[in-house]
Write a structure and sequence with these properties.
By secondary structure, this protein is an alpha/beta fold. It folds into three domains: 79 residues, no CATH class; 248 residues, Carbamate kinase (3-Layer(aba) Sandwich); 153 residues, Aminopeptidase. The protein contains 17 helices and 19 strands. An eight-stranded mixed beta sheet has the order 3-6-2-1-9-11-12-10, with helices on both faces. Strands 13-14-15-16-17-19-18 form a seven-stranded mixed beta sheet. Strands 5-4-7-8 form a four-stranded mixed beta sheet. A hairpin with a 7-residue loop joins β15 and β16. It is elongated. The N terminus and C terminus are likely disordered.
Length: 517
Amino acid sequence: MSSNTPKQAIRLITKSLWKSGAEELYKTSIKRTSHNHKSVFSTCNPTQRRTYANESVTAARSRSHANPMLNGVSMLQWFFDEVRPDEREVRYWMKYFSQATDPRKPFAVIQLSEDVFRQEEQEQRAKEKGDVKRTILETLSLSMYFLQENKMNVILLVGCSTSSPHHQAAREQISKNIRKLVDRLEESGTHSTPIFDGGHLFNTDQNFRIESLNTPQLDWLIRHANIPVIGCVGESCEGRLGTIQLDESTLSLSAYTKPLKVLMLNADGGIKDDTGQRVTTVFLPKESELQKFAGQPWWNPDVEDRFTKVWGMLKVLPKQSSYVITSARDVLTELLTQRGVGTMFKRVVPVKKYKSLQDPLSDGQAEPKILLDVLPALVASAFEKSASKSYWNLLPADLDAVYLTDDVKACAIVRHLPMMPGVAYLDKFAVSREERGNFNIEILWQQLKHDYKSLFWRSRHDNIFNNWYEARSDGVVKVGYYHIFWFGLSSADINTIVTQCKKLPDSFDGERLTIVK
């Protein structure tokens, strides 16, 4: 990467933010940053972008001089080397940053598996021989430094996979691992607070199962800027100390703090299938549907146990939260990019398929409703304008299917057009504003991909979903006010679908667009 990369990256961020209309979101994020704690993404107004780039790089570079782990490069350059984001992801960073500024709520609860510390010992020996540039805990510590600089609070948990109430050696090992992690955090410039033997946070029964949390103590830890590094050790009502299972500690803390992310960090990364390929995303609509994964080649008793624990955790978290299994090396890439590098679990709303606008909804309402009762309002909410009456009157003639989430927050309307009898047309993909950024739309899209081998659709040139559409399509043609997307079509079909899209009537009241030929 050239020496100009940080400046180019800063200009890219600024251009993308103001171009995408995220100015207010960005200003809000900056205003919340304290005056004596400058973020590596601190900025001025858009009329001073050149000065902003120079100042940001200078500030980041000055901090790197006191950070031996960066080997002389700036934190900003290390971040772009490590994560390698693209322009579309900048919007997502700022959303995460703005959500993570509440000091009463951690951005993430992170548990470290025991194999991370075993890997650290191996890599430390290799580093002494010159075979490794940076160990796994050093990389993790730099990631924690970056999050702390941007006021994204986290909690780190260190423990054992199984509880050992009478095993003194297990508690000693936890303390040793905490000391090792805190030393690495300190070397990276990250401020942390070690909590040995649980720090009276976990109140347990005589079998060392958690009964309650010492919430005043936990609240005090969260309020301070330091990252808590907590040992998974509990205290029984008799005053005895014993180790608590790492997953149980994570569940208890997550249920109370409601983080956006829960991460299980290991040395190997996400779940792999029998060919070694990563399982990227797992959507869990209902607990009863866990067994649908039993036929997957990567399914085994250990994975089943992990899925059950993950579901238990997702049940107590806000619906926008997710659980991730990834390597301790890849925290920033997992948190701050769409592609990720681990396996992400997300609880989503089930999607139902309807064949007619007159189909009844199975939503448990006291007064039964039909699909047509809810679709117009949802479409109007998503597009911020109402579809015309003629649109709804003509739709039944060529309607193929409607997909609707159970919470009536997102839908897809699919039609069959006369010139393309064998190919379906995605007429509407409507998502209410509060659902944007959540993964319910992803499960809706997966259902479409499952049911249709080919599909085409058009979107206004200023639609905020265009980047998202492009990432999931085989191609796009830009014609006048519209972008036309498709997947599963041959090159010979492209001219036909473009012609079809140009001839389609307007859907919304008062909309009259001139298509450039």
